[in-house]
């Protein structure tokens, strides 16, 4: 968050009193925060591992005037491998993207092969400017190698020109190949993505075909805190770009920080899915932006201490800090999450949240797929398959009591995947799919 923003904390009750309190202070909350356990009732007199789900639901932005203006930079691969349908669909997708903007937004277009060219410097997305940008985009032809790193840096330079003017800065990278000019290691792109995210630039990546490096593209999106896409067919590009711009044009809040504090004898174990800073008593999740009408989740595994029958204790406290779009003063919401102890198994089952359990199952599978990739890359098919089968055992142990609808279908699908990996390993296409699918699921990506 930029240094000029002053953090002012408002302690808000998250329930019926929330609306009244917000009204009394002269504003309506743009975010709704909910926190709940997968098993809010647990057996007494023993420790239990439970998962807390923190859900952030932004209000819907109803008009163009309500949203902040966007500062968009498109970074387009024009290397030799982009010839034919690929470059044609990329051109169409770029036209869709720039055509989605309004006159208050800014747009720049960077093209790269072994060199980098600024096809269109940052300018307002007026009707006249958009027409000229589209004309220039239609003239792009494929040639040369792939200088992704240099293209990103040039796009960042265009975004920086207006970084203090109240814009939401967004970068979309399209590539179908390997980074073969300039820095080309995953670590290089992780560092670059983090540096740009520190300047409030969100980076999304679109990998086209089967020739791109999915580790670079996913790592860049993760470090740049944006979305990532694996697009096998070029004709999907216009849909992907339209969806990505839909997110950028509907930012509800920025600089979101979720702080979870364990109470009493509770202990934090690990994040499930989304990356977090984890300590035994405090965990922190960060999200650069949340989008109008799109839920974002954070899942955290917590060890609950022993409790006597009938006891109700606050297990954790959740604090969510965020900056509403168009404002300079951050807000805070707080909510406590209780846990109840019982001597009756029936009460444990009846109180369990199947919706949260399904989200936990999906995220555990995403983590297992990433483990499988690492083992497959090392040439160990057996361990790759074991990672997948291991998660089946975990989700069955945790949620088997909830019935087939929560566990059976995903377990059967993963077992089938494990058998295939054991026989054949991970194909290029399957590896790309695993990498992008896992990232998209863990980050609740709206368009895939």
Topology order in helix (H) and strand (E) letters = EHEEEEHEEHHEHEHEHEEEEEEEHHHHH
Largest sheet: 7 strands, mixed
What average pLDDT do the residues reach? 88
Shape: globular
Q: Helical content, roughly? A: 25-40%
Structure write-up:
The chain has twelve helices and 17 strands. It is α/β, with parallel strands linked by helices. It has three domains: 143 residues, Immunoglobulin-like (Sandwich), CATH 2.60.40; 181 residues, Rossmann fold; 89 residues, no CATH class. The strands form three sheets. Strands 1, 3, 11, 13, 14, 16 and 17 form a seven-stranded mixed β-sheet that branches. Helix 2 links the parallel strand 5 and strand 6. It is globular. The N terminus is likely disordered. It comes from Coraliomargarita sinensis. Pfam families: VWA (PF00092). Keywords: Signal. This is VWFA domain-containing protein.
Write the layout of secondary structure elements.
Blueprint: E1 6-7, H1 16-24, E2 31-37, E3 41-43, E4 48-58, E5 70-77, H2 85-99, E6 106-112, E7 116-124, H3 127-138, H4 148-160, E8 168-175, H5 186-197, E9 201-208, H6 214-223, E10 225-231, H7 237-248, E11 251-262, E12 267-271, E13 277-278, E14 282-291, E15 296-304, E16 312-324, E17 329-342, H8 345-351, H9 354-377, H10 381-399, H11 404-424, H12 428-442
Parallel strand pairs: 1-17, 3-17, 5-6, 5-8, 8-9, 9-10
Antiparallel strand pairs: 2-4, 4-15, 6-7, 11-14, 11-16, 12-15, 13-14, 16-17
Helix pairs in contact: 2-3, 2-7, 5-6, 6-12, 9-10, 9-11, 9-12, 10-11
